[in-house]
Design goal:
Blueprint: E1 2-3, H1 5-11, H2 16-22, H3 29-37, H4 47-57, H5 61-64, E2 65-66, H6 70-87
Antiparallel strand pairs: 1-2
Helix pairs in contact: 2-3
């Protein structure tokens, strides 16, 4: 799954700062910037954050989330496992 936050902010001509301010403290400014910098890729999404994003952007959760095809998920998993093996510490 990916969060369509960068696209939705661009469509509404909003910045992560404006998003955080409009949330009334429900969305931390650093969190808003982090979610837009990662191009929507998130490992987990708290339901309170999802609710706050939906409130501020005036959308339903389905408009905010996009399913990533299984083939892309497998490729991403393969790359991250390869990267982990390169940085793994040798056994003693």
């Amino acid at each position: 799954m990916r969060l369509r936050l960068p696209e939705l902010l661009e469509e509404r001509d909003l910045t992560p700062y404006a998003l955080a301010k409009a949330s009334g403290g429900k969305i931390d400014m650093s969190q808003a910037y982090r979610l837009t910098r990662c191009r929507g890729r998130v490992r987990y999404l708290d339901t309170k954050l999802l609710d706050a994003l939906c409130d501020v952007l005036d959308v339903e959760p389905g408009a905010l989330l996009e399913r990533t095809p299984a083939a892309k998920r497998r490729q991403a998993g393969t790359r991250s496992k390869a990267n982990r093996s390169r940085t793994a510490k040798p056994a003693r």
